[in-house]
Design brief:
The protein has 177 residues and is mostly beta strands. The chain contains one helix and 14 strands. The strands form five sheets. It has a five-stranded antiparallel sheet with strand order 3-4-11-6-9, with no helix packed on it. It is globular. InterPro entries: Cupin_2 (IPR013096), OryJ/VirC-like (IPR047142), RmlC-like_jellyroll (IPR014710), RmlC_Cupin_sf (IPR011051).
């Protein structure tokens, strides 16, 4: 693994399938994903499972370009502005994220533990194992108010910016209160 972490969960194993030059199905990659950290001092790892830089996604590059390109390695940002991202995030007890908005529609699933979603109007929703959330470009923060680690999976897809009374709501990041 590229970095160590304190999470009690195992690293995320990623299997990528594709095709041989004669059209047969094959496994292109099968390995644990290295964790990464948005802030180097954080102990909560994030795993970028897959990134597609456009929609519809290009899924034949091992045939057309002679090799499979792992786009997730070249897109360390929260969201790249197009296509889609799939990631896993382990959140330590007591951790609070920055307040943020991406111009995406995000599908989230709590795999282990519980997490509090807080919106900028003050609403708080506690999500438990198996709960899902559809995040539609709103300002929010995530709070692990429990004493246990939480693991969540997210799929983020490019979306059209929200416009309210002539104002466009773009991507934003602020420190949490």
């Amino acid at each position: 693994m590229a970095a160590s972490h304190s999470s009690p969960f195992p690293p995320v194993r990623r299997v990528i399938t594709g095709h041989t030059s004669d059209g047969k199905s094959t496994v292109l990659a099968d390995a644990p994903q290295p964790p990464r950290f948005f802030v180097p001092s954080e102990k909560s790892p994030m795993y970028d499972i897959h990134h597609a830089s456009e929609a519809p996604a290009v899924i034949d590059n091992e045939i057309t370009q002679g090799k499979w390109a792992d786009e997730s390695l070249s897109h360390p940002e929260l969201f790249s502005g197009s296509g889609s991202n799939w990631r896993c995030w382990d959140m330590a007890p007591g951790q609070v994220t920055v307040v943020h908005r991406t111009v995406t529609i995000d599908y989230g699933l709590v795999f282990r533990g519980s997490i509090v979603l807080e919106l900028d109007d003050g609403q708080k929703v506690t999500l438990h194992e198996g709960d899902s959330v559809v995040q539609r470009g709103t300002m929010h923060t995530w709070r692990n108010e429990s004493t246990e680690w939480t693991r969540m999976y997210f799929v983020m897809m490019n979306a059209k910016p929200i416009e309210i009374e002539g104002k466009t709501l773009g991507a934003e990041i602020h420190e949490a209160k």
